[in-house]
Design goal:
The protein is mostly helical. The chain has eight helices and no strands. The protein has helices spanning 11-39, 44-51, 55-77, 91-96, 100-119, 124-149, 156-182, 188-227. It is elongated.
Length: 228
C-alpha cells in the first residue's frame, strides 16, 4: 500500500477517477442550489428560523406549554379530572389519559403540533427521518473520495487530516440540526460549520487528487528529462 500512488494509475484509470470526482461535484452543486431554493439565504439566522423558529415566538410557545404541562400534571396527581380556568380547554386530555406518562405524551404532541404550525419548522420525527438517510448518503459518497486521498504522495499526517475533514462535517451535520430543533438555536452555528467542513473538505480533496493524477506525473517527467 505504501508503494502504490494515484499518480501511477494508467491514463484510463485517472480519467475514470476524475469523472467520478466531477460527477460528485455536480451533484453537490445541485444540492446547494436545492438548499438555496428551499431555505432562502444560507445564513445563521435563516437556519435558526428553519429549525428552531423565531426565538421570541418559540420561547413564548415553550413557556406556555410548560405551564400547561405543570398545571395538568398537578391536577392529575391530585386526582382531579376536570380542569378549571385557563386549563379548562384541556379537560379532555385528563379524561383521555390512561396514566401520567400518557398525559405528558398527549401534551407534548399538542406542543409539537403548535410549534410546527405556528413556526413552520419540521417535526422531530421528520428531522430523524431525514437525518438517517442524509447521513448514510453523505458518508457513502464522501468515503470513496476520502479513501482515494490516502493514496496520494503526501505525508500521512497531512492526507489523513484532509480525508477526515468532510467526514467530520457528515458526523456533526444532522445531530446539530436535531439539537437546534429540540435544544437551543445556538446549534445552528454547528450546522453551518458542518456544511462548510463538507464543502471545503470536498474542494481540498478534489484539488489534491487532481494535482496527484494530472500535474505530478508531468512535473516528474520534466525533472527526469532535465536530469537526463
Amino acid at each position: 500500500m505504501s508503494d502504490w500512488r494515484l499518480n501511477r494509475l494508467p491514463w484510463g484509470g485517472k480519467l475514470a477517477v476524475s469523472a467520478f470526482l466531477v460527477a460528485i461535484g455536480v451533484g453537490y452543486l445541485f444540492a446547494v442550489a436545492q438548499l438555496r431554493h428551499s431555505h432562502g439565504s444560507l445564513t445563521y439566522s435563516q437556519v435558526v428560523r428553519d429549525y428552531y423558529g423565531r426565538p421570541s415566538a418559540r420561547e413564548s410557545i415553550d413557556l406556555y406549554w410548560a405551564n400547561v404541562r405543570s398545571g395538568l400534571t398537578s391536577l392529575w396527581r391530585n386526582g382531579d379530572r376536570d380542569a378549571t380556568d385557563e386549563l379548562a380547554q384541556y379537560s379532555d386530555l385528563l379524561g383521555r389519559a390512561t396514566s401520567l406518562d400518557h398525559l405528558r405524551d398527549l401534551i407534548d404532541d399538542l406542543h409539537e403540533t403548535e410549534l410546527m404550525v405556528k413556526l413552520g419548522i419540521p417535526s422531530v420525527a421528520q428531522i430523524v427521518s431525514l437525518g438517517h438517510t442524509h447521513t448514510f448518503g453523505h458518508a457513502a459518497f464522501f468515503m470513496p473520495i476520502c479513501a482515494l486521498v490516502l493514496f496520494v504522495s503526501l505525508p500521512w499526517s497531512v492526507k489523513g487530516v484532509v480525508a477526515t475533514i468532510p467526514l467530520l462535517g457528515v458526523i456533526f451535520d444532522y445531530p446539530a440540526v436535531y439539537l437546534t430543533r429540540v435544544a437551543a438555536p445556538e446549534f445552528a452555528g454547528v450546522v453551518i460549520a458542518a456544511g462548510l467542513l463538507m464543502g471545503v473538505g470536498y474542494v481540498a480533496c478534489f484539488a489534491i487528487l487532481a494535482v496527484e493524477m494530472w500535474v505530478m506525473p508531468f512535473t516528474r517527467g520534466k525533472r527526469r528529462r532535465s536530469v537526463d
